[in-house]
Design brief:
heterodimer, A: Rossmann fold, B: two-stranded antiparallel sheet
Chain lengths: 264, 333
C-alpha cells in the first residue's frame, strides 16, 4: 500500500511543489528590485544638468518669468476667467513692466507639501525653476484639510504632527529652490478659512498654521508671506467659487492685489 | 538511498504528526476566517449607520477618487515615478468598479495570504518544529538509533535521508496550509477573489517608501509568490530544527530551545531595534513577506536580499554542523 500508492503520490507532489516554489521564490526576489544605485545615478545626472545650464542666456534677461507651484489654488481652480494667481499677477504688473512677462504653472491640484517637495526635487523641473524671477507657492491647504473630520480629542495631536511635517517639507522646498535659483523672489500664499461656520478651535489651528508659515517665510532671504485669511474673512460669499472651497475670480483678484502690494 | 528516504517518510507519517498539524490548522483557520467575516459585517454596518443609507455606497467614493487621480495624471509636471503609481491605483480601482466589488471585501485568496503573513513569525515555525523536532532526538529517546546506525550505510546518508524526507513533508505542509486556508475561508467569505489586482514590488530607498518599481499582479500570482517565500522560510527553519534535534538528544529540550529562540526573537525586535546586531539573528529575518507588501522594516539596512542571504547562511551552517556532529557523535544508548 505505501510503496505502491502513497509513496509515488507523495514524492510526485513534493517534487512538483518544490519546483513551483523555487520558481515563485526567484520571481519574488526579482520583483523587489528597487536599487539604491538608480537613485544615486539620478542625483549625479542632476548635478551634470545643473552645471551645463548654469550660464545664463542673455536673451532670457529680457523676459520676466513668473512660476506658480503648489496645489489647486496655485493651479487656479475655481477661477471663472481661468487666470489664476499667475496670469492675474501678470496683468497687474504688465502696465509698468517694460520686459515681456511669461507665466509658467507647475501646480498639481490636490498636492500636499511632500508631493510638492518630490516635484521640485525632480530634475525635470530644474530648468523652469532656474529661469524664474518670481516664484509663487501655494501649499498646505491639502495638508491641513486631512484633519478636517477628526474629532476634538485627536485633533490637537494630529495637527501638531501634520504641522511639523509641513514645516519640514516647506523648509526643504525653500532650500531646494534656493539650491537651484538663489536670486528669485519667492512668495508663499497663506491659507484662508473657506468654512463660514464659527469653530474657534479650528480657526485657532489655522491661524497657528499661518503664523508658522509666516515665520518660515520671514526668516529666510527674499521670501514674502501673503496673508489671505483676513482678506477672505468678511467676503466669503463673493470670494469663494461655486464649490464653496476654492476662490472665485474675485477671490483670486484679491490675492493677486495683496501680492502686488507686498512685492512692489 | 531512496529506500532510506521512504523509510523516513513512513516514520514521519506513522507518528501522526501531520494529522495533529492539520487539526490545529483547521481550528485556527476556522476561527480566523469567522473573525474576519464578523469584523467585515460589523464594519459595513457601521459605515451604513454613518452615512444613514441602507446601501453603503463605496462606488461613488471610488469614482470620486478615480476622477481625482485622472486630474492629477493630466498635470505634465508630476515626476515619472508618481505617474506609474497613480496609473496602478487607477487600474486597481477600475477593476473593482467594473467587477462591482467593494475593495475592502474580504476574499478567500486575500485571507489565505494574510493568514501566512501573520503566521510566518510564530505559527508556521511552530508547526515546523512540531514536525521536525524529534527527527533525530526521538531516535535517541526511544533508543531506535542503535538499530538505525548498525545498518550498513554511512551515517551521513541516514541524516541526509532524514533531511530530504523532512523537506518533502515541509513542502507538502506549506501546500496544505495554502489549500486549507483558501477552502475553509471560502466557506465563510463566499468569494475566491483570485483575479483581483494586487500591487507589489515596493522598495525602501533612504528611509522612504518608493513605489517606482511597483507592478500589478493578480491575487493568485501574488499568493504563489508569498507562499514561495513561506516555503523558503520553512525549509530554513527545518534545517535549524534538524541541527537542534541532532545536538540535543532529547525531544522536549529541542522543542523548548526552538520556541525560546522564536519568542525571544520577537522580543528582541521590540526592545533592541537600535542594536544592529539583532538583524543577524534568524528570527528577525523571518518576516520575508513584508518586503513584498511594502510594510516598513524594523531595522535599518534590512532588505529582501539581505534577509534571504542571511537565512540561507543560517540554513547551510546548521546543516553543515549537524552533519559533522552526527558523523562524529558517540552513541551510548
Amino acid at each position: 500500500m505505501f510503496n505502491k500508492i502513497i509513496w509515488p503520490i507523495l514524492s510526485f507532489i513534493s517534487i512538483s511543489l518544490v519546483i513551483v516554489f523555487i520558481i515563485g521564490f526567484v520571481f519574488s526576489i526579482n520583483i523587489d528590485k528597487g536599487n539604491p544605485e538608480d537613485l544615486i545615478q539620478v542625483i549625479d545626472k542632476k548635478d551634470d544638468f545643473l552645471n551645463t545650464s548654469n550660464e545664463s542666456n542673455p536673451e532670457e534677461d529680457k523676459i520676466l518669468n513668473i512660476l506658480v507651484m503648489g496645489d489647486s489654488i496655485g493651479f487656479g481652480i475655481g477661477d471663472e476667467t481661468n487666470k489664476g494667481i499667475g496670469k492675474g499677477y501678470k496683468e497687474l504688473i504688465s502696465k509698468e513692466e517694460s520686459k515681456d512677462i511669461e507665466v509658467a504653472n507647475i501646480s498639481v491640484p490636490g498636492d500636499e507639501s511632500d508631493e510638492l517637495l518630490n516635484l521640485i526635487e525632480n530634475k525635470q523641473n530644474d530648468s523652469i525653476i532656474l529661469k524664474a524671477d518670481i516664484i509663487i507657492i501655494s501649499i498646505g491647504g491639502n495638508d491641513i484639510n486631512s484633519i478636517e473630520y477628526e474629532d476634538a480629542l485627536s485633533l490637537d495631536v494630529n495637527f501638531k504632527e501634520i504641522l511639523k511635517a509641513y514645516k519640514e517639507n516647506l523648509e526643504k522646498i525653500i532650500n531646494q529652490i534656493r539650491e537651484i535659483n538663489t536670486e528669485a523672489q519667492l512668495a508663499i500664499i497663506g491659507l484662508y478659512d473657506p468654512y463660514s461656520k464659527e469653530e474657534s478651535q479650528k480657526t485657532r489651528l489655522l491661524l497657528e498654521w499661518n503664523y508658522e508659515t509666516g515665520l518660515i517665510a520671514n526668516l529666510n532671504y527674499k521670501i514674502a508671506y501673503v496673508p489671505t485669511y483676513e482678506l477672505f474673512k468678511y467676503h466669503l460669499d463673493s470670494y469663494l467659487s461655486a464649490d464653496e472651497f476654492h476662490p472665485s475670480s474675485k477671490g483670486y483678484q484679491a490675492i493677486v492685489e495683496e501680492l502686488y502690494d507686498i512685492l512692489n | 538511498m531512496i529506500l532510506l528516504i521512504q523509510n523516513e517518510v513512513i516514520k514521519l507519517l506513522l507518528k501522526k504528526k501531520m494529522i495533529l498539524i492539520i487539526f490545529l490548522l483547521l481550528i485556527f483557520i476556522t476561527l480566523f476566517s469567522y473573525g474576519e467575516k464578523y469584523a467585515y459585517d460589523k464594519n459595513i454596518e457601521r459605515l451604513e449607520n454613518l452615512s444613514g443609507d441602507m446601501n453603503y455606497d463605496w462606488k461613488s467614493l471610488a469614482n470620486q477618487r478615480l476622477k481625482d487621480l485622472d486630474k492629477r495624471l493630466d498635470s505634465p509636471y508630476i515626476p515619472e515615478g508618481g505617474i506609474s503609481s497613480i496609473e496602478i491605483e487607477i487600474e486597481q480601482l477600475n477593476y473593482f468598479i467594473e467587477n462591482d466589488i467593494n475593495p475592502i471585501t474580504p476574499s478567500a485568496a486575500k485571507f489565505s495570504v494574510e493568514f501566512v503573513e501573520q503566521g510566518i513569525l510564530l505559527f508556521i515555525p511552530l508547526l515546523i518544529v512540531i514536525l521536525a523536532a524529534d527527527l533525530v532526538s526521538g531516535e535517541f529517546s526511544s533508543k531506535t538509533i542503535k538499530v538505525l546506525l548498525t545498518r550498513a550505510v554511512p551515517r551521513w546518508k541516514i541524516l541526509l535521508s532524514k533531511f530530504i524526507a523532512l523537506t518533502m513533508m515541509t513542502t507538502i505542509l506549506v501546500f496544505i496550509i495554502g489549500v486549507l486556508s483558501t477552502f475553509v475561508s471560502f466557506l465563510f467569505l463566499q468569494r475566491w477573489g483570485l483575479n483581483e489586482p494586487v500591487a507589489t514590488g515596493f522598495s525602501l530607498i533612504q528611509g522612504t517608501l518608493n513605489s517606482d518599481y511597483v507592478v500589478l499582479v493578480t491575487r493568485f500570482q501574488y499568493m504563489v509568490l508569498i507562499y514561495s517565500l513561506v516555503w523558503f522560510v520553512s525549509i530554513v527553519l527545518a534545517s535549524i530544527t534538524l541541527l537542534i534535534s541532532v545536538i540535543v538528544n532529547n525531544t522536549a529540550s529541542a522543542i523548548g530551545i526552538l520556541m525560546a529562540a522564536l519568542i525571544s526573537g520577537q522580543f528582541l525586535q521590540f526592545f533592541l531595534s537600535d542594536w544592529t546586531l539583532v538583524k543577524y539573528f534568524f528570527v528577525t529575518n523571518l518576516n520575508l513577506t513584508h518586503y513584498l507588501s511594502g510594510s516598513y522594516q524594523v531595522i535599518e539596512g534590512m532588505s529582501l536580499k539581505f534577509s534571504i542571504i542571511l537565512l540561507s547562511l543560517w540554513a547551510l551552517l546548521s546543516l553543515l554542523i549537524s552533519f559533522i556532529v552526527f558523523n562524529r557523535e558517540d552513541v551510548l544508548v
